[in-house]
Amino acid sequence: MTFLHPEFIYFMFAPLMIIYAYIMIRKESHEHYFSKEIMDKLRINSNSLTLKARNTLLFLAGVLIIIASAEPVLKDGTVRVKAIGGDILIALDISDSMLCEDVYPNRLELAKKKALVMINKTTKDRVGVIAFAKNSYLVSPISFDTKTVSFLLSKLDTSSITQKGTDILTMLETVTKTKTTTDKKYLLILSDGGDETDFSAEIKFAKEKGIVVFVLGMGTELGASIKKKDGTLIKYNDKVIISKLNESISELALRTGGVYIQNTTSSRDIEAMFSEIINNTEHKELKSQEIQRYVALFYYPIILAIVILLIAFNSLGKKVKHDKSASIFVLFILIFSNSPAIGDVFDFKKLAQAKKFYEAKDYNSSAKIYEEYARKNNSGQAYYNAGNSYYKEKQYLKALSAYSFARLEDKELRAKKLSNMGNALVRLGTLNTLERAVKHYEVSLKLKEDKPTRENLEAVKKALEDNKKKEEKEKGDEQEEKDKKYSEQKTDENGDDSDEANDKNNKNKNKNKNSKSNDSSKSKKSDEKVRPDKKKNSDDAKSQENKDNDNKNSNNDNNNEDSQEQVKELKDKNKKEVKNKANNAQSDLKLQKMSDLEEAKWVKKLNSNQNTYLYRLNKETIENDEKNEKPW
């Protein structure tokens, strides 16, 4: 047997001996005036204790209390305690834009409050803090000392970094320099996103360095002006700057395997974020320690001391017999009130009740009892049972949260827990949760091979492959439909162009035919005019020949002159016809260059007249009444 606190014996036993010796040596006041024989005659015979006996009992009770305070124990072997958790880094934006008051009291103060809630929840994980604006620095390295980390974070403000602006890439470089126990680094950013819209460089850097980014967006889409501590507003080119929440930063979270959540006035956003981080964080053994186990014995001397005190302070004579039952009752209460097993008895009843609710399919009541017991006693088994109850109740997010707190030593139970977490993630039904379910199934199978878990893993992988093929097919169909529409549009345009060209060619051909017909009619008329003249001249020549032979030569000369003039006139007419044909060809070419609107307008104009401009071959010039308009 050993004592955990032997100092109580060293410092309290000696004063107790001195007090007892002083009491035993000191005489009572009446002994100075009466002898012992007289006092024996005066004393009434009773069963009560003497003063020395009572003092001796009090001394023994004091010794027993001192021994109990020293906490006597028996060694019961050793046990190795492992601290299993993850490393989480919190990056807080302290740029001037975080002073906007579109959320109460402002973005920076609200972000610090949410970060403190996050730190208080991480009882089994290590936490570090980074502050950033244009530059960044490590406020607190990763540590289990959450109180110190919380104190340092609460003191951050915009004056902690003098350079203004928001540069997330430099902050990610600071994260890579922080030492963690896992290969991947898990980072929570509390920021309004800054002014940058393209985070491709940050995404590429984070993927290369194995940084999983979670973002809690601070601010609103409407935004607000930036107010300094002195009350003035920040301006640029004499205009008040309005800072808004930049939701483009969500790409940084989603494409690196994290989660993006916009802030709310309640704490539900940070609780959901904490649950996501815990579920995605890789947990490893952070430290381990062997602890000596003991069997406590302090309640034995305490019980004995209480019995002695009851004997010392109570008379056992006949006149106080009615106090025996009260003394026994008080003794019974004191004994059982100091028993350490009484709490476990009631806890056992609660667990039995929770199990009864579970078997009766009242999963909600069962989950509440299990979760309450788990929080009170920090029991991994109770968290596991609460997760099972929430899963049966189809509250999969609460089930995942309960499973994440379940720290189980048994390998088989850990495998079942991971398998159940995979099932809950599958039930949520999103692409991200399916991918996470695959990871949980794989880790569960590494711990213990299980046929149902293996079948679930294969089914989820097949579903992911089918979804991938479906997306590729939809993309291909969409591209094919776009190409088809594009080709149809091109075909329609070409068809319209060819129809317009054919219509114009047909019009030109008809016009040429009409012009040729008019030319032929004109030439026929001219021939008819020439032929009567020739006939008339021949009759005159015959008559003149009969009348006077002498005048024959002169008449022939006149006829020749007339015929020459007629030929000349015909040549002039032919030249005019050739010129008109050339003009018609030029007008046809100009008409081909007409726009559709102008062509329709001029066709209507030409159809309104009996003779169009193109068919007036006997006129050298064409007069257009509307001088401001062009026929081409």
Task: Explain the layout of strands and helices.
Blueprint: E1 2-3, H1 7-25, H2 36-42, H3 51-69, E2 72-85, E3 87-93, H4 107-121, E4 126-132, E5 136-143, H5 146-154, H6 168-176, E6 185-191, H7 200-209, E7 211-217, E8 224-225, E9 235-236, E10 239-240, E11 242-243, H8 250-254, E12 260-262, H9 268-280, E13 284-296, H10 299-313, H11 324-337, H12 342-359, H13 363-377, H14 380-392, H15 396-405, H16 411-428, H17 431-447, H18 451-547, H19 552-592, H20 596-607
Parallel strand pairs: 3-4, 3-6, 6-7, 7-12
Antiparallel strand pairs: 1-2, 2-13, 4-5, 8-11, 9-10
Helix pairs in contact: 1-3, 3-10, 4-5, 6-7, 10-11, 12-13, 13-14, 14-15, 15-16, 16-17, 17-18, 18-19
**Protein structure class:** alpha/beta
User: What summary fits the major beta sheet?
Assistant: 6 strands, mixed
Span between termini: 120 Å
**Cα radius of gyration in angstroms:** 55 Å
Annotation, overall tally of beta strands: 13
The number of helices is 20
Average pLDDT taken over every residue: 76
Approximate strand percentage: 5-15%
